[in-house]
Design brief:
The structure holds 2 protein chains of 2 kinds. Chain A is of the alpha/beta class. Chain A has 10 helices and 15 strands. The chains are: A alpha/beta, B mainly alpha.
Chain lengths: 339, 164
């Protein structure tokens, strides 16, 4: 079960039997638009508050994931999820709608893989037969809580990232058709003293590097064992730094493709998103919408998703604290290929 | 197969100290052109002032107001324009391009209050709009008042300025 220091090996091979992704207008104009289940043309989604809109995204993603898994709400046993809002309200209210036993988790933007790892652990251990892992973020709720009012005219630096509006959900079960969750490496907090909340890529890069190296050490693998290693939301600045750090530490990343969800979801040159995308939904919608479809079709045999999170609060950075960061890695492979 | 290709020697641990890393990360930040930002701020800020001057001239000529009396309705009109642009969701887009050009004039102050009021409308009129409207503008007022106090003090000590 435990392999090495930080890795959970899922020997019973839990399967992602259904996923769904719902996104907002900017993501719908991005290069991955065709891979999403539902695209909202408006940011407010006809809701009375941004928070209600974010919740709606997750409710819709959960419903669609169950539908794609050919499952009813009654068949769902557990729900694991989290988001960026204070007291993870989006997930809590979505869990109220779902009405199933719920574990709320917080890993900022790493929540996607944190919740998937926990869901897979539950299924692998036999503690549950159908577990939903979900997460969501909304550009305007994140702006409102962490930065300034959405309509406030402040100039963002080029290192800033654009929080994704969207939600992703995945149903994990002991058997079925779909990609297999092979193992997960739980990250530890890495904080190298970056204090600028407008440069979270640079803050999170060392955490991603730490988790990737720990994963390779724990599993005895090299990057070439993956068709793709993808970080969550390091964006232009952070992803470049992570690639350099890995090279410096002697990790042969040239054996594989090394990408970043925050750079895949938008056309960074054309869309006004500064350094790239971020937010809980970033790695969730890219993985559940885009990447798993490639895994299922066999285009990618095995991928490592390293979701990165900056665990700051508006209070902590105003008090001058540095940004503690984390990254959780989950290895997903095509079923039957390596079994 | 895959697991057989495992590396034999370990990877280097993170060898940078936080200080070294911060310096390294600093070098990776894309540079912000101070010059083009200044030029944009000058152009947009100047243009807003030009509009203000135009409005003031209008009040002076159309309503035969003296210069000092025309200033008040001029500011009110500028605030109104800023609030309308904020409500239409345009002001923040202009600001991303213009930087300080839209932040410094009175329109920036109006935008900071209007955007906060809009954002917190969902929390109600009292605890939302009322309590949050000065969230950003509050510090401008506080430090503006403090600065005015010290300037006044300096005038008093030096015996300069002030009206009889």
């Amino acid at each position: 079960m435990q392999r090495g220091k930080q890795t959970w090996w899922f020997e019973n091979r839990p399967v992602i039997v259904g996923t769904a992704t719902v996104v907002g207008p900017d993501e719908g104009e991005g290069p991955l638009a065709a891979d999403f289940d539902l695209i909202h043309p408006e940011l407010d989604m006809q809701q009375k508050s941004w928070e209600k809109a974010e919740r709606l995204l997750l409710e819709q993603a959960s419903d669609l994931a169950l539908k794609n898994a050919s499952m009813t709400k009654e068949q769902l046993e557990f729900f694991v999820g989290g988001d960026l809002m204070n007291q993870i309200i989006s997930n809590t209210f979505a869990a109220r709608t779902l009405g199933v036993p719920y574990l709320g988790v917080f890993g900022a933007c790493s929540t996607s893989m944190e919740s998937l790892a926990i869901a897979s652990l539950i299924v692998n251990s036999g503690a549950g037969k159908s577990v939903l892992a979900g997460t969501c973020s909304h550009n305007c709720t994140a702006e409102k809580q962490f930065r300034y009012p959405t309509e406030y005219g402040s100039q963002k630096p080029p290192t800033a990232q654009y929080t994704i509006t969207g939600a992703g959900a995945a149903v994990v079960a002991p058997a079925g058709i779909g990609p297999v969750v092979e193992c997960a490496t739980i990250g530890r907090i890495v904080d190298l003293g970056i204090t600028d909340p407008f440069n979270m890529g640079a803050a999170m890069a060392p955490a991603a590097v730490d988790t990737i190296q720990m994963h390779l050490t724990d599993t005895g693998r090299s990057p070439g064992d993956y068709d793709l290693i993808v970080t969550g939301d390091l964006a232009t600045v952070g992803h470049g730094i992570a690639a350099d750090l890995l090279k410096r530490n002697g990790v042969p990343m040239e054996q594989t493709q090394f990408k970043d969800c925050g750079l895949m979801i938008y056309d960074v040159d054309k869309q006004k998103v500064q350094a790239g995308g971020s937010g809980c939904a970033c790695s969730a919608v890219v993985t559940y919408g885009h990447l798993l479809k490639r895994v299922q079709s066999g285009e990618l045999k095995r991928i490592l998703v390293v979701a990165t999170g900056a665990l700051l609060s508006p209070l902590s950075f105003q008090q001058g604290e540095t940004i503690p960061c984390i990254a959780h890695a989950v290895s997903i492979e095509q079923s039957g290929v390596y079994a | 197969m895959s697991s057989k290709s495992a590396r034999r020697e370990g990877f280097k641990k993170m060898t940078m100290s936080p200080k070294e890393y911060q310096a390294f990360a600093k070098t990776r930040e894309p540079s912000r052109s101070v010059l083009s930002n200044c030029v944009r701020a000058f152009l947009v800020g100047g243009f807003i002032c030009l509009i203000g001057q135009g409005i003031q001239e209008f009040f002076m000529h159309a309503f035969k107001m003296p210069v000092d009396k025309a200033a008040n309705p001029t500011v009110a009109v500028l605030i109104l324009i800023s609030v309308i642009l904020t409500c239409l969701g345009v002001y923040d887009k202009i600001a991303q391009w213009a930087g300080a050009g839209t932040a410094v004039p009175v329109t920036g102050f109006a935008n900071s209050m209007c955007s906060a009021a809009l954002e917190h409308r969902s929390e109600g009129l009292v605890l939302g709009v009322g309590a949050n409207m000065f969230k950003l503008a509050g510090s401008v007022i506080v430090f503006g008042t403090v600065a005015a106090f010290f300037v006044g003090l300096a005038h008093l000590i030096l015996g300069t300025g002030g009206q009889p």
